[in-house]
Write a structure and sequence with these properties.
CATH superfamily of the largest domain: Porin
Radius of gyration: 27 Å
Order of helices and strands: HHEEEEEHEHEEEEEEEEEEEE
Largest sheet: 16 strands, antiparallel, barrel
Shape: globular
CATH topology of the largest domain: Porin
Number of helices: 4
Helix content: 10-25%
């Protein structure tokens, strides 16, 4: 702006001393405006990459100890503030940086400022996602995703915790990929109209999982997110899904997925058995989106490491488990309420825990999510739980109980 004023002043002075007069000064003004418009058009056509970056996020604050009947009932993978000495807890503090650097290049970086990697300290910063999508065609039908991102296995694992109804992911599927992510290269294919449908299922409040393609294939390290690779073999994963319209506009999405690889466990001194195990699973399920009634169910089976408390050994064992969820969507103006009930079971080890902890889980959750305004979500959930979780420090450990859990989520 200062440059324009200086140029204009100089032109006035030149014309004044040459005796050209006011008409010529007006002509100079017109020329300056034309040049300015050309410059603006050129800058708009070549926006700097940093002007394409967008920012969004969410924060979840929880309290889990209302009406608690057993303080020894815990679930480290679910929520580290469960049980004895637990208090108010930031489950997630997420900021998401994303944007299109080019018509065929999209990037996505998501740090979490509420991580508790050891359980002893809270609110550490840790990268959850850091990847870019490279479109192989103009319509972005074919994409390569490179970096740390969600592994395309199951449905609830892929569904953002910002959109999910229950406070935690189910044990059976989430034990396959802790934190749902790993570093690798993934290929996704989906026609343009199906990609729009994936987007609609999230934006409309129907609790979709996001766009991970109709077909997803990938190769990834296999030791789960933010952990180094510990062997010379990678995991391979494949997923197939297709959301379609059924009677009266009802949206249904069936899906199947599977992966295979080798996993290296961490174990305490004195625990016997190998350290590397075959890690294989397959899952199938479907979603009938809440219009207004909804059903969501998944089941997986496979083989993986599991602690045997009888002989203090980690062994390769069969695993199985899944969940079924009923939900309902009630919308009045901008206020939305989702009552839900979920039952889950899991019989197997958790490979990412020390000693590949042996788990036997039976749980029922009843609750609702309430959005009084679009930026604020409240979840109230009553949990009936029966959990066995055994390792070398707790070879005989079965805990049962009930608790009322509450969460406030801020979306921005």
């Amino acid at each position: 702006m200062h440059v324009k004023v200086a140029v204009r002043l100089c032109l006035y002075l030149v014309y004044f001393f040459l005796g050209i007069g006011q008409a010529a000064a007006q002509q100079a003004d017109s020329l300056l405006i034309q040049q300015s418009n050309v410059l603006k058009l050129k800058m708009a056509a070549e926006d700097p990459w940093y002007e394409t970056i967008q920012l969004r996020g969410y924060t979840q604050l929880r309290y889990n100890r209302l009406l608690e009947t057993n303080p020894d009932l815990t679930c480290i993978q679910c929520d580290r503030s469960w049980g004895k000495n637990g208090g108010f807890f930031f489950r997630r503090i997420r900021l998401i940086f994303y944007g299109n650097l080019h018509e065929r290049v999209f990037f996505y970086i998501q740090p979490d400022f509420g991580s508790s990697p050891t359980g002893a300290d809270n609110n550490f910063t840790q990268i959850r996602d850091a990847y870019f999508d490279l479109a192989l065609d103009a319509k972005r039908t074919f994409r390569l995703r490179l970096g740390q991102s969600k592994v395309p296995f199951g449905f609830e694992n892929l569904q953002s915790s910002q959109n999910r109804l229950p406070l935690d992911r189910n044990d059976a599927l989430n034990s396959a990929v802790a934190n749902e992510r790993d570093i690798g290269v993934f290929f996704y294919w989906a026609p343009e109209h199906i990609r729009k449908r994936f987007s609609h299922l999230v934006r409309s409040g129907l609790k979709g999982s996001g766009d991970y393609g109709v077909v997803g294939l990938g190769v990834y390290n296999g030791q789960t997110a933010s952990r180094p690779e510990l062997n010379n073999t990678q995991h391979v994963v494949a997923r197939l899904t297709y959301p379609f319209e059924w009677a009266n506009g009802q949206l249904i999405e069936p899906f199947v997925s599977a992966y295979t690889g080798k996993f290296v466990v961490s174990k305490r001194s004195g625990v016997l058995g190998a350290t590397e195990f075959t890690d294989q699973r397959m899952t199938a399920g479907f979603v009938k989106y809440p219009q207004p009634w909804g059903i969501q169910a998944e089941y997986n089976t496979g083989i993986g490491p599991e602690f045997n408390p009888e002989n203090q050994t980690i062994e390769s064992r069969r695993l199985r488990g899944g969940y079924a969820q009923l939900m309902y969507m009630v919308q009045k103006g901008t206020r939305v309420t989702y009552p839900f009930v979920r039952a889950q079971t899991y019989h197997g080890g958790k490979k990412h825990e020390v000693d590949a902890t042996r788990h036997r889980v039976r749980e029922l959750e009843v609750g609702f999510e309430w959005l009084p305004i679009p930026k604020v979500e409240w979840v109230l959930m009553y949990t009936f739980s029966d959990r066995t979780f055994e390792d070398s420090l707790r070879p005989d450990n079965r805990q049962g109980g009930r608790l009322l859990r509450i969460q406030c989520q801020l979306n921005f």
